[in-house]
Amino acid sequence: MKKIQMVDLKGQYKNIKQQVDSSIMDVIETTAFINGPEVHEFQKELEEYLNVKHVIPCANGTDALQIAMMGLGLKPEDEVITADFTFAATVEVIALLGLTPVLVDVDPVTFNIDVEAVKRAITPKTKAIVPVHLFGLASDMDAIMAIAREHDLYVIEDNAQGIGADYISADGSKQKTGTIGHVAATSFFPSKNLGCYGDGGAIFTNDDELAHTIRGIVNHGMYVRYHHDVVGVNSRLDSIQAAVLRAKLPHLDEYNNARKKTATKYSEAFKDIPEIVTPQNCEACKSDKYEDCNCHVFHQYTLRFKNTDRDALVKYLTDKDIPCGVYYPIPLHLQKAYRDERYKEEDFVVTNQLVKEVLSLPMHTELDDEQINYIAKSVIEFIKG
Ligand SMILES: *Cc1c(COP(=O)(O)O)cnc(C)c1O
């Protein structure tokens, strides 16, 4: 059996090596390292794939979140609501801009922001909601957009883990995550579903005016060369990374399908184990029609373990050369940097429970059946003792 990796970037590279190598060499030959044609072409191709009016590439996903908030003109003391159970980048940029982060609990089934908790957290100072499409599953955008309309709030989608995922509204219409709110941020960190070979990110919006504002912000606040109209930043996607992303974008659906196929096999193996709660997976995903269904793109395949010593399981799997990860081990409201006396433990019941129960299994585009079976068998072995 091939050695199991949490993420197998090398195996994936081997299949697209020729395209990637020649694209990188072309950039080097032309020396258009910054804002070269590859960046512009990638931007257009991603706009088309997502069906969104504007993609603004930038240096990484954290910058993308920050720039989106700067573009919306959020001001110190404005309150921004986001999920307690996510990667820290989201809350970090809110705090960095002097805005007030308001963390709320998540839903125990989807792991995404709890819309009832969002409603309870709204005050006259609330200006925006940041739903995170955690692990590749869309947040409840119908409900979030309805709350935003009612209270006149901005919605900034953190789509770093959700690229390629579809959100299906109650009326049956289908949109890509990251194209529903006022603005969205994504990351092309190597291990993300669409990853480059270094850092990269992008902002998406359908709002022409906001797109114009953001294009200036990423470039030192310049709209006309050497005229600085607003305080900006320097945040660029470099041409070599854009070339890698152009080579990978045509494979994104195929990559996401490979992830879903793996998730379906894992979930099938665990379905009769009462201690294991498998991730939400719709009927279409579970059937052989999953090729048509992109409701979950499985950036992570994350299980909840009931009545199980999760940390002993981690050790058991590690000893068997099966990598695994706890995403995330500490709720953001308990992190030293983000503690706030307004937070009460009873408002974070789900997150406090999830951090003890979750475990993510290896998930990437190159897992084969032998590996998947070995991983599933080992997990079940541990549970059954
Ligand atoms: C990866 C990630 C980010 C940050 O992206 P970087 O490119 O690493 O800066 C932000 N939010 C979430 C949910 C992420 O998973």
Poorly predicted runs of 5 or more residues = none
Specify the biggest β-sheet: 7 strands, mixed
According to CATH, the homologous superfamily of the largest domain is Type I PLP-dependent aspartate aminotransferase-like (Major domain)
DSSP strand content: 5-15%
Individual helix count: 13
What is the level 1 CATH name of the largest domain?
A: Alpha Beta
Give the tally of structural domains: 2
CATH architecture of the largest domain: 3-Layer(aba) Sandwich
The portion of residues assigned to helices is 25-40%
C-alpha Rg, in Å? Answer: 21 Å
Q: H/E order of the elements?
A: HHEHEHEHEHEEEEEHEEHHEHEHHEH
Bound molecules: pyridoxal-5'-phosphate
Report what the structure shows.
The protein has 385 residues and is an alpha/beta fold. It has two domains: 9-250, Aspartate Aminotransferase, domain 2 (3-Layer(aba) Sandwich); 251-384, Aspartate Aminotransferase, domain 1. 39% of the residues lie in helices and 15% in strands. The strands form four sheets. It has a seven-stranded mixed beta sheet with strand order 1-9-8-5-4-2-3, with helices on both faces. Strand 6 and strand 7 (174-176) form a beta hairpin. Helix 9 (252-270) runs parallel beside helix 13 (369-384). It binds pyridoxal-5'-phosphate (PLP). Pyridoxal-5'-phosphate (PLP) binds next to helix 3 and helix 4.
